[in-house]
Amino acid sequence: MTPVDQIIEVAISRQTAAVPQAGFGIPVIMGLCTNASWLGVSLYAAYSSADDMLSDGFLSSDQEYKRAVKLTSQDLKPTQFLVASHSVPVAQIDTITPIVTLQEIQHFIATIDGVPYDFTSDATPTAGEVVTGLKALINADSACKAAATGTSTLVLTGKTEGDGFTTTVSANLTLVHTLGNHSITDDIAALRLGGTDIWYALLITSQLAANIEQVSAYIEGQKKIFIADSNDAGIISPSSTTDVAYTLEALGYDRTALLYAGSANDSRAAAWVGGQVPQTPGSNTWMFKTLQGIIPDSLTQTQRLACIGTPTVPGKNCNIYEEVGGVAITENGFVVSGEFIDVTIGIDWLVSEIQTNVYRLLTTEPKIPYTDQGAGQLELQVRKAMLQGATNGLIDKLSIVVTATPVLDISDNYRAARYYPGLNFSCRLAGAFHHIVVNGVVTV
Question: Distance between CA 10 and CA 17 in Å, rounded?
Answer without folding.
Answer: 8
